[in-house]
Amino acid sequence: MSTEKSNTEKHFLCDDHDIWADEIRFFEVGREKVMVWRDDDETLYAYSATCPHQDRDLEETGKRECVCGPHDDDKTLTCTAHSWEFDLESGDGLNPSGPQLNEYEIGVENGEIFVVINGGASND
Ligand code: FES
Q1: CA-to-CA distance for 16 and 28, rounded, in angstroms?
Q2: For a 10 Å CB count at each end of the chain, is N or C smaller?
Q3: Which ligand 1 atom lies nearest to the CA of residue 58?
Q4: DSSP 8-state secondary structure symbol assigned to residue 57
């Protein structure tokens, strides 16, 4: 029998009907803040709410808009601290390219939305 402890944890966020299409919501999961977007097709995406540039809280600095021009406003999140932009469908950096939002696995079971946090999300 293995004594290894799994370092991956599944966390309940809310009921499935609590996030509407085209809505972004934020959740505290232990020490992590998770940003969840449900697109118009009801697909769920979950990312860390921490901007990879200088760790600003995207709940405070995130805005649904492409300020550099060519991208779809509805699918772009701009961190207004320094205008870095991210594709909400992939988490990829659009401007600049390269940096990415940290993505979490997300799903629905028995009418409840959950995320999986690797490394846990304890309050330690
Ligand atoms: S902290 Fe987000 S763009 Fe600088």
Answers
A1: 17
A2: N
A3: 2
A4: B
- Rounded distance between C-alpha atoms, residue 78 and residue 95, angstroms: 9
Those residues whose C-beta lies under 8 Å from the C-beta of residue 4, and which sit 6 or more positions away, are none
CB–CB of 27/43 below 8 Å?
A: no
- List all residues 6 or more positions away from 77 whose beta carbon is below 8 Å from its beta carbon: 24, 58, 62, 63, 64, 85, 86, 88, 101
Report which protein residue has its CA nearest ligand 1's atom 1: 54
How remote is the CA of residue 87 from the centroid of ligand 1, in Å? 15
- pTM here is 0.89
- Counting atoms of ligand 1 from 1, which one is nearest the CA of 56? 1
Q: What is the pLDDT of residues 21-53, one digit of tens each?
A: 999 999 999 999 999 999 999 999 999 999 999
